[in-house]
Amino acid sequence: MGLFILRRFGVIVLTALCLTFIVFFLTNLYPNLEKLAKTQANARMSDDQVVSWLDNRGYLDPMPLKYARWLGVAPAYVRTGDDGAIVFNRCARPGEEPDEVGRYCGVLQGNWGFSTVFRSDVLDILAERGWQTAKLMFWVTVVMVPGALLLGVFAGMREGSKLDRSLSTVSIATTATPEYVSGVIFIAVFASSAVGLRWFKGTATSAMENITFENFTLPVLTVALYGMGYIARMTRASMTEVMTAQYIRTARLKGVAFRDIVLKHALRNALIAPFTVIMLQFPWLLNGVVIVETLFNYKGIGWTLVQAAGNNDIELLLGVSIISVIVVLVTQLISDIGYVYLNPRIRIA
Amino acid sequence: MKQNPDYDGPILEIDRLSISFFTRLREIPAVMDFSVSVQPGEAVGLVGESGCGKSTVALGVMQDLGVNGRIVGGTIKFKGRDLAEMSQAELRDIRGNEIAMIYQEPMASLNPAMKIGKQLMEVPILHDGADEQAAYDMALQTVTDVKLPDPARILDAYPHQLSGGQQQRIVIAMALMSKPSLLILDEPTTALDVTVEAGIVELVKELGVKYGTSMLFISHNLGLVLETCDRVCVMYSGEAVEDGAIAEVFDRMRHPYTQALFRSIPLPSANKTARPLVAIPGNFPLPHERPPGCNFGPRCDYFEAGRCDAQPIPMRDAGPGHNSRCVRFEEIDWDAPPEASDKPPAPAPGAPVLKVSNLKKYYEVAANALTGGGEARVVKANETIDFEARESETLAIVGESGCGKSTLAKMLMGLETATDGTITLGNEEIQDKPIEDRGPSQVSDVQMVFQNPFDTLNPSMTVGRQITRALEVFDYGNSDDDRRQRMLQLLDLVKLPREFADRMPRQLSGGQKQRVGIARAFAGDAKIVVADEPVSALDVSVQAAVTDLLMEIQREHKTTLLFISHDLSIVRYLSDRIMVMYLGHVVELGTTEEVFAPPYHPYTEALLSAVPIADTHVVKKQIVLEGDIPSAMNPPPGCPFQTRCRWKEKVPGALCETEVPPMRNFDGHQIKCHLSEEDFASMEPVIQIAAE
């Protein structure tokens, strides 16, 4: 088992490297850099000035070298004056002396760059925003997973019954409604002051300090409902299949009551397939988070991503992408390990 | 808790039962006017081909017919109480407690995600209100009763960690946990190997005596029913056609279907030239296309228009405790021998066409498939195989699953290449030539008929196209017309109407599909046809027809037939020579007479004893092998059979455990064994036919 996790971990690192390189490559294309130069220095720079501005900051070096620097495995770009003294060091923050900071400053050194939008360290921003999103994700999971499993199991235990039909309709409807539709509808119905019920608040800004039922229900529900329908459909499909299996007949003809057949015999087998789907759903949730956080003005990772993308904040974008890559890969690792525990037929030496 | 402990009437009384399934289109009657009763301690067999409604009866008794099934007439009484009138709670109390069931596929009937122990303990906890400890003790006791080694470890295992035979023992243990009054066995051994089957049958009989349980034994295998049951009921197309005591029905049958069934199975008295099998003509009627009057009428030799198809035929008394659903049984001369055949005798085997010498096939498998790590292990699928096959000879390759017979077939076909040794076809060595490197003539020379006709035809290609495709591969003919002509001839050859060329495989029955498979194999005038269990997926009455066809074509074409099978009855009937395999080794090789008579290899002896024979005159010696076939991944040292051999003590020293025995030659009859000449001489025949 230890070996297995170690191997998987190696694969994760490799995947993360590839994915970040792709993001790095795309965000460091010349048009982006040109925009960066113009926003950072002077919007009316001539093309020559842009080139020299970029060149002076090491932006025009070969892509692999720049990537290695960003990672922190190659020394950062420095420019020396005519006397050999360091006059520019990428590692130096505003206010720091270029010759006093170290030569390596990359992701590995914990230096994720400096956000041009928020004018602060990327890692600090990510930590703060990430925590906000984590809280949102946590509540989404708490609502979505048990809800979806219940829906799926109830629908699947008696295929074709009225209960099945109505629950299936509900789950199809929720999956077919994207967040930007359901979010708007929820705000209109439950939060708008004109016609709505005014049960909940239409903004979740206050939830960043203090989560209440009133300010957090709508964002959580908006994200959860979308994923819920999908997982419920998968669970139902798996459950109906299990309920027709021969060992369920064995249990029935052993005299086991229907409730116990579902709980003791069918459930564990029925959860094997949806488990992978649930774990795959977390990366998908990140999508929803972007929309919902913007819609409800909740300043988490998704909101930060929108800001970073809108303002060409290259290093912040890279930071967000690292977080996403880690979330995706770690959930997949959890899914593989959990699968082994659910399904006794798979054993990892 | 058991109900009516003092009840002493029949345990199960089924009276004029009719069960139908309801679809959107129509009502489909599955069982009609079916009556049977089971006395305490009695074993009743329910025999019939697939689709005759025997499993529906079992599910009807369990009151578990699903959403679409319903009992539309008659009653099922268990210990005098009508099951149809019971509430769900009462039924739950009876299921698994007083009526228990054993299923066909043990792997599918056990919950894969629950430990064996937990599944067993559920029964007493549910029905006797036992606590965990008491239930565990009971489970341990029952697992010991079904003769499984190391019961504590087994209780802690998951189903996939056990072999098929062990799983079936667990299913039996589960059924016996509550000491039921009635045990329903639905084809309990169909999915198992013969020697394992023999062990299970032995166990079921023994437990039946020990616990005094009544049994309803459902099977398509007449031999098995003879070994296990006191009375038998033969079903055809939803109706019971004949019932009575075993000896009565087997020796004094009074229904044409029963007679036809017996004539279509290879009994020891059958012989491919003098007394060939008689196939039942026609096809099983679909439930909604049953003929008026007697269901068997259209396929019956004694059919008389106006009488047999006039009105529904009732069950009538045909002797003490013997009933038959035939209007003419008094008029039929039951002792008349079947029509003598005018089949030409098989041509004498010619020159050798295939020579296999010292052939080996090893597979390397990674120790851990998921992570790919660990040391690679070697599976020795075939070990030093030596034999030759002659023109127009039928060589049977016999053995149980995992003995390497399919690997051998794959190497002959070129789907695998040999690790060592040679395969000589004609005068060319082909062991290292994969099928891609073989020329069209070599490919068409060695062809195969597959086991499962349902999966080996392309479902989206017409029958004619599939055969023409084979002809194209074999480079037959110069034009499409040539090939079409040849394809139609091939359809004639396998006795299928020419219209079938434009049909899709799904429109064909199992037997017809297998005929298409045979046509495909013989398309390029194959010199060697490897038939891998060609009839085992088919119903008994169809088996005879397909077997006959195969032999007829073989005679005409002087083809060498390599007939792979685990069924010794059919092998005895059609083969000239037999090769017995065990764990990759050829353990015995000789003519059919030699292999079926002593001296035997100890494994052949056990195999012969394990085959159920549906003939009351046959006396068999009981040899039940202990344990399971060892894994080819980890074969025992020395003789492959030493772990289960009953003759092992006769060999001095630990010879069996250390050395692979040499091939001993008794005038061409070869046996791979360490036993001495005297021991071989002391062997008695396993199957003897008692004098009338």
Keywords:
heterodimer, A: 349 residues, mainly alpha, MetI-like fold, 2 domains, two-stranded antiparallel sheet, 68% helix, elongated, B: 692 residues, alpha/beta, Rossmann fold, eight-stranded mixed β-sheet, 22 helices
Class by SSE composition of chain A:
mainly alpha
Largest sheet, strands/sense/barrel of chain B = 8 strands, mixed
Write out the CATH superfamily name of the largest domain in chain A: MetI-like
Oligomer state equals heterodimer
Query: How many runs of DSSP E, i.e. beta strands of chain A?
Result: 4
InterPro entries (chain A): MetI-like, MetI-like_sf
Pfam families (chain A): BPD_transp_1
Family (chain A): Belongs to the binding-protein-dependent transport system permease family.
Organism (chain A): Jannaschia aquimarina
Q: What does this protein look like?
A:
The complex is a heterodimer of chains A (349) and B (692). Chain A has 349 residues and is mainly alpha-helical. Helices cover 68% and strands 3% of the residues of chain A. Chain A folds into two domains: 2-109, no CATH class; 122-342, Orthogonal Bundle (MetI-like fold). The mean pLDDT of chain A is 84. With 692 residues, chain B is α/β, with parallel strands linked by helices. Among the domains of chain B are: 351-535, Rossmann fold; 597-689, no CATH class. Chain B starts with 11 loop residues before the first strand and ends with a strand. The A-B interface holds A 3-4, 7, 160, 245-247, 249-257, 264-265, 268-269, 272, 342-346, 348-349 and B 62, 64, 67, 92-97, 100-101, 103, 105, 108-114, 122-123, 126-127, 158, 160, 171, 174, 367-368, 370-371, 373-374.
